[in-house]
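Aggregate trends can hide what the representation actually does to any particular protein. The sequence in question and its structure tokens are set out directly beneath this paragraph.
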Amino acid sequence: MTISVIVELHARPGRRAELNTFLETMVAEHGPSQSGFLGSRRYEVVDDPDILVEIAEWESAEARQAHMEKAAATGAYAPLTEMLAAPVGATVMRPLR
């Protein structure tokens, strides 16, 4: 069953554009090769210029989990630590039956 993931990223003050560029590059370079990744879209938070929200679609929770484990093992998201002011928040959802 497909899932949606809401990811909230709090950039360090003034680094949202850099964070967005990093994410765009990651999705463009690696998204198409990620098994189970269906796509994503990023949003800016109107009342806070340092927050980005991404909504990603995955074929399954297992596909996303496999991606996250691989990303952790390879350090793919390591550059984020310098750009983020807080830990990444993620809410994994599936449609009601």
